[in-house]
Design a protein that fits this description.
- By secondary structure, the protein is an all-beta fold.
- It has 5 domains: 28-249, Jelly Rolls, CATH 2.60.120; 269-392, SPRY domain (Jelly Rolls); 401-504; 508-606, no CATH class; 613-707, no CATH class.
- Helix content is 2%, strand content 38%.
- Strands 1, 3, 8, 9, 10, 13, 16 and 18 form an 8-stranded antiparallel beta sheet that branches. An 8-stranded antiparallel beta sheet has the order 11-7-6-5-4-12-2-17, with no helix packed on it. Strands 19-20-29-22-25-26-27 form a 7-stranded antiparallel beta sheet, with no helix packed on it.
- A hairpin with a 5-residue loop joins strand 26 and strand 27 (349-352).
- The radius of gyration is 27 Å and the shape is globular.
- The two termini are 34 Å apart.
Length: 714
């Protein structure tokens, strides 16, 4: 075939000056059912006991199947690298269906919104200890826990003369093909290379790096740049592969395009075609939300007439049109609030002329079809419109979340200790340090730089502010000093520290005031936009923690939640005086929790910042876990169900660094840390993996690790 349309390719440029890729990938190979590469070495390898393998992959597995990325060796003793759609793990296996598997990842990898980088070291030389013979790295981080059985053989059969090799399919049976996209496939013969040869961290994201080393005799490098020969080895070794049905795509790790979201809770379609074809009972959504500004287009090849359009990410509104035709182009203008279509290249037709541009929308498909978001050949037909690739996305206000929230785990020493490592200045900023003992039942300890060291509050208690000289004793430049108080530093106990940089840049503020007992009293803040969440506490007297959250009702200013309680929403004007917050103030009533005459108060105030934080809500479907879009890869989520008695819960990606995210704590309880896995964190949001009650509404506050255009799959 000829060269693919390159109208959406980014060549020699980066998405923004703020975030620079050290190495841009312009092409990848799309593997669908019946598409694969094969090659059989004809000479001996440099060293059959040492191999390094690196590739980037975006996977769309059949849920019950094994999806082979790589397979090698003779029939009786072959090996394979496969994605297990039934449990979301990556496995190195001996025979079909991963029986007698050698190595299986502890983490699960179900994110279809972005790429994973997979790096595997095989070192079966006699001097190498068993536990180090196979090492798997995902996005630059070594898998900390894997299952190993049985003992590894002395060789793994890659690159051995006469042993067939395949990429994208299983060698000895049908039905196990890869359904996904591969980029930058390297195999290094006879060497164990460091993972840093193939990638590096930039602003919290693991990104590609050009490999400059050698390949050994039977090593190879597939860059998928020559559309007429996608199996071409460009390592210089000439170890070329035969291509069967693999096609070139512009969807790459440095310019990611949407696909169909097999994990959306309302998805009922069968997904194929590397995530771009849906069939069966159709209700399908794109993995990527449409930016809230700009003009965007995509093309649908219709297999059966049906409804196509948009649905907001909270599932509350749909804008769509029935389509009869072979090819429909959808064009959404978020600057002017319009959605239009072109059918079979005809005239523009209006679908919606007053689209809510404050909502976040997903492309929606309710009939069998194949979509081209621009990675294959589609270019918008109207001037000013762009494709939904990350190179075209607006630059988020915050890319790397590390400067807004530092999360630290540690073991207590029982002696004075300096806890450091924050990438921002803690002592000289408005900072909040929230500490919880994980291994025992000490209460939550909250200390901030406004009230000063030794002063603490507990979210599990209505008590007034306390003083503990041996708790958080001092704020430091990049951390804090602890005494030997058991709640924060008991010998051998485990702890979590959440350290918030409470600056308006990050959508956070700390404010204090003295109550006057007069309804309608206003409290100034510095967010520059209306707060979406406000947490208040009376410092002087026993009183509950009041919480304003903009998603608890259509008129949230009339209601409050209690952070130290599982009580349901309360409608009471004495909290916020039934007055909505503004860009400069929030209003309090006469409740003791926020405005008793003469009492001292503090509030932690929050608003969403694109790319870093999101304050929102989701509604449970009742059968499958709900998919929530945030616009970043989360590292912290605080949530609770409203409308019923329910505890708050908080999760993060530091206590557990892979999915399913399990360790949780309750702000309103002193309980030991729980371990049930509830969420998958994704490159642009999170998905609950336990079914909730149908119609249940959950409000949340989330902070991100890395903004979506740059975030890795998690």
């Amino acid at each position: 075939m000829g060269l693919i349309n390159n109208g959406n390719k980014i060549v020699g440029a980066n998405i923004s000056e703020m975030f620079k890729y050290p190495f841009l990938i312009n092409y990848a190979g799309k593997f669908i059912e019946g598409a694969y590469l094969d090659w059989t070495p004809s000479s001996a390898p440099t060293d059959s006991t040492k191999t390094s393998m690196s590739f980037w992959v975006k996977m769309f597995p059949v849920a019950t199947n094994i999806n082979y990325i790589y397979c090698c060796g003779p029939d009786a003793t072959h090996r394979g690298m496969a994605y297990r759609g039934n449990d979301g793990t990556l496995a190195l296996s001996r025979i079909i269906a991963s029986q007698d598997q050698l190595t299986k990842t502890a983490g699960v990898y179900r994110d279809v919104s972005q790429y994973y980088h997979v790096y595997i070291i095989f070192n079966t030389s006699g001097a190498t200890a068993e536990a180090f013979r196979v090492r798997i790295y995902i996005n630059g981080v070594q898998e900390s826990s894997v299952s190993l059985a049985p003992a590894l053989a002395s060789k793994w059969y890659q690159l051995i003369s006469g042993n067939p090799q395949t990429i994208g399919r299983y060698l000895y049976a049908t039905g196990y093909d890869l359904n996904g996209v591969l980029a930058e496939f390297h195999m290094i013969d006879g060497q164990v290379r460091p993972v840093s040869d193939f990638g590096e961290f930039v602003m919290g994201a693991w990104v590609p790096k050009r490999y400059t080393g050698s390949y050994g005799d039977n090593g190879f490098y597939l860059d998928f740049a020559d559309a007429s020969d996608l199996g071409k080895d460009v390592s210089g070794n000439g170890n070329h592969w035969t291509n069967t049905n693999v096609v070139q795509t512009l969807d790459t790790p440095t310019n990611n395009f949407p696909a169909l979201d097999i994990h959306h809770e309302l998805s009922t379609a069968t997904i194929s075609g590397a995530g771009l074809t849906c069939s069966g009972t159709e209700n399908e959504f794109a993995t990527t939300a449409i930016p809230q500004s700009g003009k965007w287009g995509w093309e649908i090849t219709v297999a059966e007439n049906g409804s196509f359009g948009l649905e907001d990410v909270e599932g509350n509104e749909e804008v769509a049109a029935d389509v009869s035709g072979e090819v429909v182009e959808m064009l959404v203008d978020m600057d002017n609030g319009t959605l239009k279509k072109k059918v079979d290249g005809g005239a523009l037709e209006d679908i919606e002329l007053s689209l809510d541009t404050t909502a976040t929308w997903l492309p929606n498909f309710k009939a069998a079809c194949t979509i081209d978001f621009g990675a294959d050949s589609y270019i918008p037909s109207e001037d000013g419109y762009k494709t939904l690739c990350t190179a075209n996305y607006p630059i988020p206000e915050i890319i790397d979340g590390e400067n807004g929230l530092w999360i630290n785990t540690r073991e207590g020493t029982g002696a004075v200790v300096n806890v450091t490592g924050a990438s921002f200045e803690v002592a000289s900023r408005d900072s909040l340090v929230w500490i919880k003992e994980r291994s025992d039942t000490s209460g939550h300890v909250l200390t901030d730089t406004i009230r000063g060291a030794t002063k603490y509050l507990s979210t599990d208690s209505s008590a007034a502010e306390g003083t503990a000289a041996l708790a958080l004793a001092k704020f430091l430049t990049n951390g804090f000093q602890l005494g030997n108080n058991a709640a924060v530093n008991g010998v051998g106990e485990t702890y979590i520290d959440w350290v918030f940089n409470m600056l308006p840049k990050y959508g956070m503020d700390i404010v204090t005031w003295t109550g006057n007992g007069v309804a309608g009293r206003t409290v100034a803040h510095s967010l520059g936009a209306a707060p979406e969440m406000v947490i208040t506490k009376n410092l002087s007297n026993i009183s509950d923690w009041f919480v304003y959250h903009h998603k608890v009702a259509s008129d949230p200013e009339t209601d409050y939640l209690i952070l130290n309680s599982d009580a349901t929403v309360t409608d009471d004007a004495t909290a916020w005086n039934d007055t909505a917050p503004t860009s400069s103030v929030f209003t309090v009533g006469t409740a003791t929790a926020c405005n008793a005459d003469g009492d001292e108060y503090i509030a932690y105030v929050f608003r969403s910042i694109p790319g870093f934080s999101k304050i929102g809500a989701w509604t449970e479907d009742g059968s499958l876990g709900t998919r929530t879009h945030t616009g970043f890869r989360p590292k912290f989520v605080l949530y609770r169900r409203i409308g019923v008695v329910a505890s708050w819960a908080m999760f993060d990606s530091v206590r557990q660094t892979y999915n399913t995210i399990g360790p949780f704590l309750h702000p309103n309880l002193t309980n030991v840390e729980g371990s049930t896995g509830y969420f998958d964190f994704l490159s642009n949001g999170f998905k609950r993996h336990t079914a909730g009650a149908a119609g249940a509404v959950i409000v949340y506050l989330a902070f991100g690790q890395t903004a979506f255009p740059y975030a890795n799959a998690f």
